[in-house]
Amino acid sequence: KSTLDAAPVVPRGRTSAGGSRADAAAVIGPGAAACGSSSSSSSSNAPASPSSTWEASEEVPAAFQEILTELSRLEFEFGGVRNFNGQPRIERKVKACDFRTCYTDFEYIYLTVLGFARLQICCEEIVALNNGRKFLQNPGVQLLEQRTGMTMHADREGANHLLRSAPDVLLEAFAASRRADAAAGGVAAFFREAFDRNADPCLEGRVGRVMEYLQSRSQVPGSSSQRPPAEDLALQPLPEGSTAKAVIGEHLRVFVNECTWRWARDRGVDYDVAKKERQGEAAASEDFARLCNAGAFEATLLAKGLASDVPQRRWEVRIDDGTWSPYGAEQNEVLEMARRMNKPCCQIKIRQWVYEVDLDRMVQVNAKTRKERPVRCAEYGGSGNPPCRGGMLAHEEIQAAIRYFVELHTLAE
Length: 413
Hints:
This protein is of the alpha+beta class.
């Protein structure tokens, strides 16, 4: 049952109890002060955001505007507007406790859709600034909060995947609601079930709620869910002092799910169908093992920099002025994994551009224009930002843990 209508709306002017920094996750308009929010937010002690200006008038992408148009038709059904002059807009932060007590469902849903729309626009800019640290040390998360009104746990692996996939997840869920028959509730049920202003308003929480809706609709005729749950592709935090097997086991869980998603897309089937098929007939299992095996898993871990005693390598591309520019962490990981697996080429994406990298010729090729640039790879010498986070396990520990999972038949050799 949806909890969207669980909390009463408090009339403007009533002050709610203050919340902790963890409660802060969205931004609001002129009604902020009425709900107990002040001009000083949790980010007041944070370094200045790298992009301090944002054009509020920037157009909403057409696909998201369509969602907002449908929502506006149900404005009064979901409580209407109480905290804004006109339509809700992202201006400054509101705490989760204020969302629960002061804002209507309509306002919460509208701000969420608007935030996802902005994320689609500036995703690559946020990803480029994301350094994998917590809020105060992470300009990427600060920019995410400024632009979209949402924060996230960027210190967990899978953060960049979540940033890139979140807008598409919302669009896919909305499309599924329009395909559903009347018995499934249609678009109104989508707004009622895929959003919850009483839940954790961080990016992970909002995406998780949309994913739950999407999965619940996977059995509706004419609809499908091609994407895995967000938690399937994100490492979960482990207790301090966890063993090497526990650490590698958690990485293996995510790796298997990543391979399953890739395999599902290659075969044109749903993620859940692929999960069943990979453990089914021998032919399917062997085909899945081409992607998911001990060699590929070890190469992935080393490319991520998990081994403390294996030198990190930095990949660079030569730009127009003749200097060498390092790739971002995500591209570096793809390139390094391809090198370790002796692949002749691989594909990377930088903002809207797709590039093919020929590892035999050591050139980057623009997939659209076919322009080539030289690339190079060298051991990281300690200057500038490292290509990935420092390792936490010895290479020998990693190999021993991988052998353990191979012997358990959890991973193909």
